[in-house]
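Notebook entry, structure prediction.
Reason for the run: the old model in the group folder had no record of what sequence produced it. Starting over properly, with the input documented here first.
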Amino acid sequence: MHTTQARISLNGPTDLLTTVPLLLGFHPDHSLVVVGLIGGELQCTFRADLPGSADHLEHLPDLTAQLSLNECDGCVVIVYGEADLAKAATERVAARLHAAGIEPLDLLRVADGRWFSLTCGKPCCPPEGAPIPETSAASCEVAVAGCYAEADRSAIAAQLAPAPAGRRAAVADAVAAALRADAELDWGSQRSLDLHAIDHWMGVGTLPGPDDIATVGLALGDLDIRDYALRRINSGRFKGNRVDLWIWVARHLEEDLVAPAATVAGFAAYRFGNGVLALEAFELALRSSPHYRLAQMLMAALQAGIPPGALSRIGCGDRDEAEVAEAETEEAALEESEQTECKEAAIEE
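New structure, fully documented this time:
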């Protein structure tokens, strides 16, 4: 099961169907998609694999709890697949949702680039279906916000594939050198360097080379520095939560170091609303370190349908609101200092 969250106004099936792939991150196939609504506005999107046939509907996931958790009052059910399975699946899903007080406003089927309404027999919904346009006003709005759709599910997983062996070897050498250098530093100096590295690479639009990948990767292994990165992501100040940075770092690290970076990448994707990419990142973290607690917790939250906005205190630990506010002020000062240093360096150049 995959989930995304965004608040978008929709005006009919074409708005919805052109937007769903962007929200999921890929074009679904043989899938059940339930779009949760609040007051007619899109609130969340959940996807699950369909069973092999209408005779195996007991394997169809029940998404009622996820929509209820997001306080949805309506929904649209979409099945990407063949007609008999679509009819049986939508009927079962609609009955469950209706019983939970979530009104299915439409039941749709998508196949071969066309959409079919399973509830409307009016001329606006012809029985032979209607073509799905490439774009709509709603899909353009979502694309401008930074969402995009890969060709299929496997393309999402490919984003987290290990970097080429030569680059990984260069990072491994840099990690060994950094560990030797770290032995000469006291805790305070090391922490300052780690915080500086996180702030610097979150604030620039480029990606680090081997030495800096090693620095950031090792820094995230410290829970305090990792949580600092999570708080910076939660600040919402960085384009796309710098998902690209965290994925880049994770792809270059050896298996024994990858879990923290992959978990931070998953968290950044989750907070951005890309549940599919987040799930891939958490799975990568847990393959390398099956007991990495934060990855376990975030994957459970994602699969339960907990909305991204509910994660705003992740990284804050047991600190109260006053402590969090003080920390945010300090972090803003660090960011301003980093920006000043960058400007001064540019002037010198």
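Summary: Confidence is low (pLDDT under 50) at residues 320-325, 341-349.
The old model has been moved to the deprecated folder.
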